[in-house]
Structure formats: C-alpha cells, structure tokens
Design a protein that fits this description.
The complex is a heterodimer of chains A (315) and B (176). Chain A is an alpha/beta fold and 315 residues long. Chain A has three domains: 102 residues, Rossmann fold; 90 residues, no CATH class; 93 residues, Arc Repressor Mutant, subunit A (Orthogonal Bundle). Chain A has ten helices and twelve strands. Chain B has 176 residues and is α/β, with parallel strands linked by helices. Chain B contains five helices and seven strands, in the order E-H-E-E-E-H-E-H-E-H-E-H. In chain B, helix 1 packs across helix 5. Classes of the chains: A alpha/beta (315), B alpha/beta (176).
Chain lengths: 315, 176
C-alpha cells in the first residue's frame, strides 16, 4: 500500500554535466530519508514538478526561460565564475551531494519562517499543520470541524458552524487532534468548503488582531481557491499580483492603495492555507514589479459588467 | 452568420454534467438556448437533462454591446462546432465535475479542446460538485496542473450561484 506521506516529485534536468547529474542523483537519494521520492528525467518540455538547469549550456538557458514562462519552480547553476544575482534560487556547482540535498529540500519543502507561535487558534493550527496529509478534527466548544489541509478543504456539520468558526479563528481555545480512523460522525460532515476561502473570510474579519507581516517578500505558489470569496474583490486583485511576482506587504499597499490591514489579512490567510510562500530577495519597488499590460477598453467594459472596477488590474 | 472577428464571445468548455449550462444560466440575462435531451442519472436514477450539442446565451454589456456565451461539450464529434464559434473568444471557463471518477482525464480533454480552439486561449477552471465528493482533494488538481504546466485559477464553485459563477469570469478577466 503506498505511503501517503511520501512526496513524489518529477525533476527535469537541462544542460547539466554528467558529473553534476551524478551528484544530484546522490542528493535525491539522500532526500528519500525525508520522504521525498524524486524521479529524475532529462527535460525536453515534459511534465515536471521542478527543473534544475545549468545556465552555462544553451539547453539550460532555453529550459530556464520556459520554466519562467510556465511558472515552474527552477533551481539554477549560474555561469561559471560569474556572481549571478538575477536567479532567485541558485545551486553551487561545486557543492557536495549533501549540500545539494539541503538546497533541494528547502525548495521542495520550504521551511516557513512564519511561526505558528505568532498567531493562536485555528489560524495557528493551520500554519502548524501546513502540508499535513492527515485529516484533523478541530473543536471549540460545541463546534467541530474536519481540517483537510493538504486537500484544501474544511468540513463542518452546518454552514452556521463555519460562520461562527470564521469569527473565532484566533481564539486560543481551539483543540486539534487526528481524525479517528473510524469517525463516528462520518455522516455528519455535510458542509464542505474551500480552506482558502474560509481562511480569507476569517482573516479579513479578524484583521485588526493579526500581527504584521511587514518587510518580507511573498509570492503565491498557486492561485487560491476563491470560488466562494465572491464579495471580496481585493482577494482577486491581490492574487493576480502575487502570482505574477513577489511583493512585500508595504509595496502592495503602495501599489494598490488598499489598507495595510486588508493586505496583511490576505497574506496570513494564504500563508496558513499553503498558497503563499516566502520569496527570495529584497523588497521590490512598486514600479519594478512585473505589471500586466493595460487591458483593452473592450476587456474593461466586460470587467465593469462583472463588477470589477475600471482599471481593475492596476492601482 | 456571426462575424467571429467582431462578436464578443465567452466559452464554457468541459464534459457533460459538469455544470456548464447551469453556470451559463447563472450569469446570463436570458435563459440559455440549449440542445438538451433527457438522461438518467446513473447514481440516483433521477431524470436529468444533458446538453448534446451546445448552449447559447447573451449578456447585455451596455446598450450597444452584447457578450455572447457559448457552452461546448467536450465531444470530438462536435469539435466542428468549436471551430465555428471558438475563434476570437475572449477566453474560456473549463467546468469539471469534481465527483467524477475521470476528473484528471476530463481536465486533460478540456485543456486539449481549448488548445484546439486557440493555442493561446486563456482559461480558468471551475470545479463543481465538490460537496458530492467528501474525499475530493484540491491537491489532486494542483498536482495535475503543475504537471501540465498550467498556472491558472482553479476555483471550486456551485454553478447554481450567480456570484460564484461570476467569480470564475472575473478571474479569467485578470488573465487577459
């Protein structure tokens, strides 16, 4: 029976020498101890979870450009002798296998510097259990819910339980335990919701009580599931910006003119749901961020009909 | 005959029973004109309707402009219709049934259908019936999207809810 805790990764290699490939292969073997199972393949545009490229080679440079366009995670061996600073994630071509393994692990299982100690309650539980493959039973008073973090879902007995939980997300009285294998209440979890949506609504409600996430750069690793966040246009706008490039809370506030509390709440919610990650580098100036081209007037008219403001993608 | 260069079009793609007609109905000004036939739901035995060719509806953007909305089922023998109504579309919403045993294949088929219409067609993915699949995991979809090099919004929605169906279109507009 397959172990659900093992993370299976397809790793594409482009332009690497045989000697580096051998050390990478050893590094991948070491990661098996961390329950990361890596399948290495020569990358020719095929499906991969992460790419390793050598910028010294033409194939590596081409693969890097394609990875950037496709938003694929990529680790780069920069040009020999160069002090390249343009790559967010680099590998040392002389590093031993153990050091390569550490770098790979950090990329594949990034350690969050945001601690669950910074926030209490259900939000803290979500941050602490980020990536957890087990279903958790979370309880507070008469409310019980099933937290399926890696599945991005939260289950409750009723919509009103979810609404109450949203308003109590930072209360320190939440209890958390593994869902019993034979759940006696299995048939009672009738309401299934997006964890992203739940946390975004909850954090916006609790925005005054959240500590500041200032000074750090963040980027979305995926679009949050905003299907149920229908009354919050800010969440869509922030998602669109954060999936294109890395931003700090301060730069986002300056660019969008949204309140710092709203931005901070969105960052906490998506961090807790696993959609947001810390990014490398220093704070971007707003004008350095990768801004989208201005939408055409036709798109603007369609956007207006669907409730987006004129110039919706710009500050 | 519609002039595909001048007509403002929005497409809904995906397999039968994924909620395309329902979502179109939720966001449109008028009930969609659908070529539907009765079918029997294999699970419940209940009588349901399914679209065998396409849906069509409109949204009045302003006194002078109409957004034409088409729903196209992912059936190869009906691809000729996509070739007629697809070109020039603003983008597409791919509707998928999260409770389907063939969700991954349905997703691939819908993405391929979108690519056949226009390789540069922008799209978002809407997942319906997540409430009918207690074990459904978004991570399954995210992993599939990563492997297909898709970095598009994937929203779980109730296509009966106009606000949630609209949310998919809003996300699409951010991609254009």
């Amino acid at each position: 029976m397959p172990d659900e805790n093992i993370k299976h990764i397809k790793m594409g290699l482009a332009g690497l020498s045989e000697e580096i490939e051998l050390r990478l292969s050893l590094a991948c073997g070491l990661l098996a101890a961390s329950q990361i199972d890596i399948e290495i393949q020569d990358w020719q545009g095929n499906e991969s979870d992460i790419l390793i490229v050598d910028i010294d080679s033409g194939h590596g440079r081409l693969a890097y450009e394609m990875a950037q366009r496709r938003n694929l995670p990529v680790l780069v061996f920069p040009r020999s002798g160069d002090n390249e600073t343009q790559y967010a994630s680099k590998l040392d071509r002389d590093a031993p296998a153990a050091a390569l393994a550490r770098a790979l692990q950090e990329k594949l299982q990034p350690s969050s510097e945001i601690s669950s100690d910074d926030v209490q309650g259900l939000l803290g539980i979500c941050i602490r259990e980020a990536g957890c493959n087990q279903d958790l039973l979370v309880k507070r008073g008469g409310i019980a819910m099933i937290l399926r973090h890696s599945a991005g879902r939260i289950l409750a007995r009723s919509v009103s339980d979810l609404t109450i939980a949203e308003a109590r997300v930072l209360d320190g009285t939440w209890l958390c335990m593994t869902r019993p294998a034979k759940d006696p209440y299995q048939n009672e979890w009738l309401v299934s919701r997006s964890l992203d949506g739940f946390l975004i609504k909850a954090c916006v409600k609790y925005r005054d009580g959240l500590p500041r996430l200032g000074g750090k750069l963040f980027r979305l690793t995926r679009w949050p599931d905003l299907g149920s966040v229908t009354e919050d246009m800010d969440a869509l706008r922030l998602s669109a910006l954060l999936q294109r490039s890395a931003w700090s809370a301060e730069a986002l506030a300056q660019h969008t003119q949204l309140s710092a509390d709203i931005i901070n709440a969105f960052l906490w919610a998506t961090l807790a749901s696993g959609a947001l990650a810390r990014a490398d580098g220093t704070t971007l100036k707003p004008d350095a961020a990768q801004a989208p081209a201005a939408p055409s007037s036709l798109i603007q008219r369609v956007a207006r009909h669907f409730g987006l403001k004129l110039g919706y993608s710009h500050a | 005959m519609l002039d595909s260069e001048k007509t403002i079009k929005l497409l809904f793609l995906g397999p039968s029973g994924a909620g395309k007609t329902t979502a179109i109905r939720a966001i449109s000004d008028i009930p969609p004109v659908s070529s539907e036939v009765s079918a029997t739901d294999a699970g419940s035995g209940a009588s349901v309707s399914t679209t065998v060719a396409f849906d069509y509806s409109t949204i009045q953007l302003n006194p002078n402009e109409i957004l034409h909305v088409y729903g196209l089922p992912g059936r190869e023998h009906l691809d000729f219709m996509a070739a007629i109504v697809g070109p020039g579309a603003l983008g597409a919403v791919l509707m998928l049934d999260a409770s389907s045993q063939t969700l991954a294949q349905d997703c691939r088929t819908a993405v391929e259908q979108a690519a056949r219409i226009d390789p540069n067609l922008r799209f978002v993915i809407g997942l319906s019936k997540t409430d009918l699949a207690p074990e459904f995991s978004m991570e399954t979809m995210y992993a599939l999207a990563r492997r297909m090099s898709l970095f598009v919004p994937i929203f779980s929605i109730d296509p009966r809810d106009p606000a949630q169906a609209t949310q998919l279109v809003r996300a699409l507009l951010y991609l254009l």
